[in-house]
Design a protein that fits this description.
Elements lengths: L1 H13 L2 E6 L5 H16 L3 E6 L16 E3 L8 E5 L4 H4 L3 H4 L3 E6 L10 E4 L6 H11 L6 H14 L10 H12 L4 H9 L4 H11 L3 E3 L4 E6 L1 H7 L10 H5 L6 E9 L2 E8 L5 H9 L2 E2 L3 E7 L2 H11 L5
Parallel strand pairs: 1-2, 1-4, 2-3, 4-5, 5-6, 8-9
Antiparallel strand pairs: 7-8, 9-10, 10-12, 11-12
Helix pairs in contact: 1-5, 2-5, 2-6, 5-6, 6-7, 6-8, 9-10
């Protein structure tokens, strides 16, 4: 790992123009790690762009550099492209022809990563990409300001479910402590992410919770959100962040699933498990997706009834 840290450090020091990208429909890890690398490179005097294929949830507007994230362009004049928290190149919107004459770096923690870049720094044991970046920055003695520290903290806090998930290790907590020593206010981060939801988001959540049903003696919990629910509450995809965790939190449930109708008869599947069940296998084999053991997802076409039946069938081993 140190060899890769050194290699990436040399690339950063020798080049001047960078593009940072992350997966579409970015979560806290994708946004936090993107902005953390952006912040570090800016402090080093580099020319830096940060882009994403889809809109960034307004939930993260409290981050100073939120407005720096632009739509994906595939035309920026840069030397280096860095993809963070992205298992497949298609997920970050980078065109292979655009990247072929650039130094392409892939930094990720998904065990399903396809090693799509020229340089791949992958650690599936890391709780979040923010943990990998912390090690990378510290190893190379890159500047870590209070702002950068907050971005890394948001990355780690959100991808560990506020340090609740099984991926949280002693090292994860030590990194979080170091970030707090850098000036991060844990309450400020937690308040903005978890305790400042819009009223319409909570009204949407009420509708979604009304759909909760369990299967296999309560081991599988499924909830859904439809286009009609979005219209009724004047909400959007971004308003559903964290909703899947309510399905997983049902007592006795080993797996929680959220079916989100992003387009008519086109569903995004989010899956979460509590401990032993590896939902990434179902995501990869059944829905063409991927992720981690306890958090994965995919996409599928069909009516709500058809999609729900496929989910139930995919987890029939819980019976």
């Amino acid at each position: 790992m140190n060899e890769l840290f050194q290699k990436i450090g040399d690339i950063v020091n020798k080049n001047s123009k960078f593009l940072i990208v992350a997966h579409k429909n970015p979560d806290g890890d994708a946004i936090g790690s993107s902005l953390a690398f952006y912040s570090v490179l800016k402090e080093m005097g580099k020319v830096v762009y940060v882009e994403n294929p889809t809109d960034v949830p307004s939930l993260y507007k409290f981050l100073d550099d939120y407005d720096k994230i632009e739509p994906i362009s595939n035309n920026k004049d840069v030397d280096v492209v860095i993809a963070v928290d992205t298992a497949e190149i298609d997920r970050c919107g980078i065109d292979k022809n655009y990247a072929k004459d650039k130094v392409f770096i892939n930094i990720d923690h998904h065990k399903t990563n396809t090693m799509f870049a020229k340089i791949n720094l992958i650690d599936s044991n890391a709780a979040a990409v923010g943990c990998i970046l912390w090690d990378l920055f510290v190893y190379n003695k890159f500047p870590i300001s209070k702002k950068t520290a907050l971005y890394l903290y948001v990355s780690i806090m959100t991808d560990t479910g506020s340090f609740r998930y099984a991926s949280t290790s002693p090292k994860t907590m030590r990194i979080a402590a170091d970030l707090i020593e850098k000036g991060v206010n844990p309450w400020f981060a937690a308040y903005n992410i978890y305790e400042s939801r819009k009223l319409k988001t909570l009204k949407l959540l009420g509708l979604v919770l009304n759909t909760l049903e369990t299967y296999y003696d309560g081991k599988l919990a499924i909830e859904y959100v439809t286009q009609d629910m979005f219209k009724k509450t004047d909400t959007y995809i971004e308003n559903t962040e964290g909703f899947v965790n309510f399905a997983r939190s049902v007592r006795g449930a080993e797996v929680g699933v959220l079916l989100r109708e992003d387009e008519p008869n086109y569903f995004k599947i989010s899956m979460r498990s509590k401990d032993k069940v590896d939902v990434s296998k179902a995501a990869a084999l059944v829905f063409g997706g991927g992720g981690h053991k306890n958090a994965a997802g995919g996409q599928i076409k069909g009516t709500l009834g058809e999609v729900r039946e496929k989910i139930i069938e995919a987890f029939s081993f819980l019976a």
